[in-house]
Specification:
Layout: H1 4-14, E1 27-31, E2 34-37, E3 42-45, H2 48-51, H3 60-70, H4 84-96, E4 103-108, H5 111-126, E5 130-134, H6 143-148, E6 166-169, H7 189-200, E7 207-212, H8 228-239, E8 242-246, E9 270-273, E10 284-289, H9 290-293, H10 309-324, H11 327-348, E11 352-358, E12 361-366, H12 377-389, E13 392-393, E14 395-397, E15 403-405, H13 414-432
Parallel strand pairs: 3-13, 5-6, 5-7, 7-8, 8-9
Antiparallel strand pairs: 1-2, 2-3, 4-10, 9-10, 11-12, 12-15, 14-15
């Protein structure tokens, strides 16, 4: 059997360096929240394939569904010879997505593809072209989604020119308020800024949609205050602008609810799901109001692989696990335990400037000192390395790379969770040494 070291050598020879590899471990097998690498080392997974394995690695129900489907048919292309799986999963998502209105769903393969299609649908339905996204946002790596994404390096550097008629405004980053204000006395001025944005950047009458993550993922798990999304919804309604909620990383139980936007009590016009939707298989969806989803002409939407039968069956199993097997409730409990531990760490480690998130989607923002809030980017990188050396995979994020985020599978055991949190705590102590 090949070792991690042998595979690293082969990877450098055969795979382009633009594909970043964050650990020295190559996976041999994975179950639940544990990954075993090719050298036989066990690692606690707080990364979850970047938010893809909310129901755990190789969940038995997901594996059984895939095996059962593999014996029947793998692909016919829904546009050529359709199948009931596509309709059945669409119906489930239409029922589960926020709002009690009539909805429709289409499937593609990745989060970026779903964002692209949501933009197409919004433009077609409104007859407008402009799309507004936000600073710190991440929406993908295709041309349009790179354009909507905020951070230049590594995501956009050297890959232009970018798509036209896209605009970016400040987000509700309370810890680093772009307006120099403090919540709640700010009265969410960051949301009301949208009205000024229409004056100085793009006219409301030309804006098809605003696309926004409920909690910014790659941007640093930036979590808006309770009033933010209701205010955005009001402004969108006032000007006939569609609200697209990107739940690629936040959805499917990541925050303790099926959709993170539920925490704000807001109903989007279009909602995008991917990552954990199919438990590790490539599948994404655009779900939205039927009167919007139904405007595109026949043949205007489509994907050869979109709604692959194996992925659809896996997604059905995922939804059953989340909604019927108590995993959402487990997520709420995990979030409560983790938040208490992180708050305790914040009290003892001056380097933790902010603790934020919802449910088990939590983050620690590391700073050189709390007064200046200078990002502790090098320290965050070192912390990730220290955790890995102790058997924990954890990821950094944020525009400065100074935010430690948690995306562990929700099936993680109490003992695994405790061990992982202890490793973070121990590593924070070592940073001071």
């Amino acid at each position: 059997m090949r070792t991690n070291e042998e595979l690293t050598t082969l990877c450098k020879k055969h795979v382009p360096p633009g594909l970043a590899v964050l650990t020295a471990s190559f996976v041999k097998e994975a179950r639940g929240a544990i990954i075993v690498d090719m050298n036989g080392r066990e690692l606690i997974d707080f990364a979850g394939g970047i938010g893809v394995t909310n129901v755990g690695h190789c969940h038995p129900k997901v594996v059984a569904a895939i095996k059962d489907q593999a014996d029947k048919y793998l692909h016919t292309c829904f546009h050529v010879v359709p199948y009931d799986l596509y309709i059945d999963l669409a119906a489930q998502l239409n029922e589960l997505a926020p709002g009690d209105h009539h909805k429709m769903t289409m499937f593609v393969n990745s989060g970026a593809e779903a964002v692209e299609n949501a933009v197409k649908i919004a433009r077609h339905a409104t007859g407008r072209q402009a799309i507004i996204s936000f600073e710190n946002a991440f929406h993908g790596r295709t041309n349009m989604t790179m354009t909507l994404t905020s951070k230049v390096k590594p995501y956009k550097f050297g890959f232009g020119p970018f798509a036209p008629e896209t605009y970016r405004m400040p987000f509700a980053y309370c810890y680093r308020c772009p307006f120099g204000l403090t919540h709640p006395t700010c009265n969410v001025a960051c949301a009301d800024h949208l009205e000024d944005f229409f004056i100085n950047n793009v006219a409301a009458e030309k804006t098809a949609a605003i696309i926004v993550e409920p909690i910014q993922g790659e941007g640093g798990f930036v979590t808006p205050p309770p009033e933010y999304f209701p205010r955005l919804r009001e402004i969108c309604d006032k000007h006939g602008i569609l609200l697209i909620i990107d739940e690629v990383q936040t959805g499917m139980g990541r925050t303790g609810t099926l959709f993170a936007i539920d925490h704000w009590g807001v109903v989007p016009d279009l909602v995008i799901t991917a990552k954990s939707l199919a438990g590790g298989l490539p599948l994404s969806a655009v779900t939205g109001r039927a009167e919007i989803m139904g405007t595109s002409h026949v043949g205007g939407l489509g994907s050869t692989y979109g709604g692959n039968p194996l992925a659809l069956r896996a997604a059905m199993a995922v939804l059953e696990i989340l909604t019927k097997d108590g995993l959402l409730e487990r997520g709420v409990l995990l979030g409560e335990r983790m938040l208490a531990r992180f708050k305790d760490m914040q009290n003892r480690h001056e380097i933790i400037g902010d603790v934020r998130g919802k449910g088990p989607m939590l983050a620690l923002e590391l700073v050189r000192d709390r007064q200046s809030k200078v990002p502790a980017s090098d320290e965050a990188k070192k912390l990730v390395s220290l955790c890995y050396s102790k058997g924990l995979i954890v990821l950094a994020c944020g525009n400065f790379g100074n935010v430690i985020r948690t995306l562990m599978p929700l099936v993680i055991t109490d003992e695994e969770l405790e061990r992982g949190m202890t490793i973070i705590d121990e590593s924070l102590h070592e940073l001071r040494g």
